[in-house]
């Protein structure tokens, strides 16, 4: 970390390349807005002979395009700061929270969705801020899943992380903890025996990492993954679809197959967010759907991630995929498979659709939950028997406004 490359001069010197003076000026201007920091390890993966098209270079070295702010670009497109009940916690979904326990990363990804915060060393969360976050989780019984993120939680010391995991682990209603980290990709030596020994004490613990290109699966990163998997930690991967880096069906398939070989389950493929300075990385959503078309059916089901668009404005992740239902009648559903075979599924002649009043103790399905009471949310509410809502209307609907005026 101490030897991380932070200036264009050092980058040129170490890579043995020369940028034209004029370009260099723009790079430096970009770095004043969005700083750079690359580990020597990650930089060493760059193929110097074709560095400008290199996926590692593109993810770590600034582009002059970053200063072009598009009309729809936002500093906080996912409204993570707005959906934050206490500093460092984003509570968006009913049963889980995102807990920012570190505000720094081993490598500053150029495509970071939290670009607004990159290099903002002033706001490394203090022990007090983390205690407040833990307090919020303790006082919010709906939270059964805590996702430690940041920044990168593995940039904390083993002791600090051990303390957080211990405190969160003491909360009865927290059933599972997850950590999101890119260290296996950009600083694999962080996955030490000591770290893994400590993590093992905190099961059930899941880890998601962030590989974007097969090139990143080196001997060192594979060793890091092996240590984590051997510690019994289920591993997932979240990739970001990036123009010029990995926007290719064949590449994504190779990446996911290699991940599975290393015991990492592809979890999400993200559509690139509408954060400031990322326009040059964005692809149409159609590119992602095309990629999914070439994965589902063509390779093992567990090598296929869910492709998601994280809704601008804080709507959360929306899964997107090709359509497989071709048509639908009362008795038959017409479906197509990955080969283009069109088939029919005959709906059952009889199906006893039971009225559900959420009285699980009186139901024959034998779910023994003492506490099955939950609120229906969103579309689930429209489908349910136990809630009388028949429509959802956006706030500010003009027609409803006229009705209210008349009343
Ligand atoms: C992605 C995300 C989660 C976790 O979502 P999963 O679909 O459960 O992986 C939780 N909170 C926030 C704010 C997120 O962005």
UniProtKB/TrEMBL annotation:
Task: Name its co-factor(s).
Answer: pyridoxal 5'-phosphate; [4Fe-4S] cluster
Q: Which family would the database say this protein is a member of?
A: Belongs to the radical SAM superfamily. KamA family.
Q: Which reaction does it catalyse?
A: L-lysine = (3S)-3,6-diaminohexanoate
EC id: 5.4.3.2
Q: Which InterPro entries match?
A: Aldolase_TIM, LAM_C_dom, Lys_aminomutase/Glu_NH3_mut, Lysine_aminomutase, rSAM, rSAM_sf
PROSITE patterns documented for this protein: RADICAL_SAM
Query: Taking every annotated instance into account, which residue ranges of this chain make up the domain Radical SAM core?
Result: 91-303
Annotated protein name in UniProt = L-lysine 2,3-aminomutase
Q: Which Pfam families match?
A: LAM_C, Radical_SAM
Q: What is the uppermost EC class here?
A: isomerase
UniProt keyword list: 4Fe-4S, Iron, Iron-sulfur, Isomerase, Metal-binding, Pyridoxal phosphate, S-adenosyl-L-methionine
Q: Which residues bind [4Fe-4S] cluster?
A: 105, 109, 112
The region called Disordered is annotated at 387-407
Which residues are recorded as modified (N6-(pyridoxal phosphate)lysine)?
317
Recorded superkingdom? Bacteria
Q: What GO annotations for molecular function exist for this entry?
A: 4 iron, 4 sulfur cluster binding; L-lysine 2,3-aminomutase activity; metal ion binding
Q: Where is the composition biased (Basic and acidic residues)?
A: 396-407
PANTHER family in the cross-refs: L-LYSINE 2,3-AMINOMUTASE, LYSINE 2,3-AMINOMUTASE-RELATED
